[in-house]
Design goal:
mainly alpha, 0% strand
Amino acid sequence: KKLKLDLKYYSPDIHFASKVLPKYLKEMIEK
């Protein structure tokens, strides 16, 4: 649940990561 807050804080990082590491990001979001 803390990940959701982090995701909002790292909005730009997530966008970039989603393009570079879509699998890693998906696993983090799923967890």
